[in-house]
Amino acid sequence: MAGKIPQNFINELIDRTDIIDIIDSYVPLKKTGKNHKACCPFHDEKTPSFSVNQDKQFYYCFGCNASGTVITFLMEYLHMDFVEAVEDLASRAGMEVPRESGSSFDQTNQSAKLYALMESATKYYSDQLENNKNNIINYLKKRNINKATAIEFELGFAPPGWDNLIINLGKSKELIKELLDIGVIIKSDRGGQYDRFRDRLMFPIRDQRGRVIGFGGRVLNNDTPKYLNSPETRIFQKGRELYGLFQARKSIKDLSELYVVEGYMDVIALAQFGIKNVVATLGTAATNEHIEKMFRITNKLIFCFDGDEAGERAAWRALENSLSFLKNSKQVYFIFLPSKEDPDTFVRKNGKDAFISPEMLTPLSEFLFNSIGNNINLEVLEGRSEMINKTLPFLAKLPHDPYKDIVIKKLSEITRYEIDDIQRQLSTSNKNDLVEKKVGKSSKEKNRGIEKVRWLIRCLLHQPSLALVLDIKSTSSLSALDSSGINFLCELIKLIKETPNITVAGILENWRNTKFEARLCELASEEDEFKEIGVTNEVFVDAIDGLIEAHQKEFETFKTKSSPLELSEKEKLKYREMQKSTQDT
Q1: CATH fold of 245-370, please?
Q2: What is the pLDDT of residue 20?
């Protein structure tokens, strides 16, 4: 895709940036030995457990397990996205962020034009609201939206008519194309264009950086659809964005919790009653991207949807999508409103204190157990068995954390089933265990192979120069091994050979947003264990040779077969790969 930041630039940026300087400017560090330490900025603590290693350009907290590179730090501490963090570091280093080619225009400049045009559209709609003295003003008064709130959320008005925006913003071919690109006008069947939003109250949607990226429009009468959103565009993906997040962060510096509601008017009504920490999904369920973004800002989410069947379904989807994030003190709660109520009507009837009362909150675990246990008779063995079987898939989504242990304990109390037995059921249902059984490998044999590869990868993370002592024969022989993670190990060795001075941070950035990222961070964090190994070049080479020797023994086993007919198709393929590897070396 056009505009992608080249990986070699990110590697150079990491190489030219000192993580100590960056983190120390936000969190004062104290040098202790070869590391720098501080109280962790990501959780409350009195004794410093946050450690930053200058050689590796990597940080790790032994308290909450937060870890990463200087880019990760900016993303987590300042709540930037990846591109924002890269641009920030590049600016400090006096570097210009390049973009890979792939189209006839530069995406960065084009996006800047689209953002500017969105601001122009926002101002146009705002001016129309200011100048309108009839329907729209009466509607705002009817909904009890005061002027201060309308200004805070930059409410606007799209007047009736088919080409108001086109007339006021410009009719040139270039502008027409850009208006189409941001989704505020639509192509007609006859080849012309017309305004997407007509006779609607307008809600500008700003991203975390404050840029208008889309609009929501509400009708003033009974027309349909009631709400109309901007379409997906180059600068707007509704599954990732949250209405009101920009205003919430602007009003409250440290968001201890976030309320998540369904609609624009819910956000605005709650804000007008002094509840500023509110966001809304944009006509979709709360996605994984939404939840991940919010948990980067706060540790506590409170979902509050309408008191109807649709609201309950939305709450359940939010529960399912939240499970995998519940670690390191992350919490999720729900507010279930009375039937036919929404946050807007509830807060106007009952006031702020009633809405934010702790008594309104239902913990995720309680919602989970109540929903699954509904209509199950827990007084009989069959019912308790059904409860366990229905709950296990949800427990499997929870990450390893004390919270998971507590939830398992609660299930044990509900079903009168031993905790160890529940954990065993979880373990036996693990997909990896099933795969191991299918391929006929003993778990001990497979785990030994996995641990060897993990050990080698950990060695390279802490001492990348070890890869430079491997010769061509060793690396080519490695590529033929059939062991979990071996392909990744070969890729890692190749990267280090191509970039001899690469650090842990550089390695991690090469696998950002891949399935390997989290595991690499874990291995990079195992520094204390690594120091006990005392790895030398000779030890590392011996370990590689050990894998190759095991490979050769397996090859010799194949050769003892009296006929190729005795080999399975998988063995035949592997045998051919081994033959080729042997000839090449």
Answers
A1: Dna Topoisomerase Vi A Subunit; Chain: A, domain 2 (3.40.1360)
A2: 93
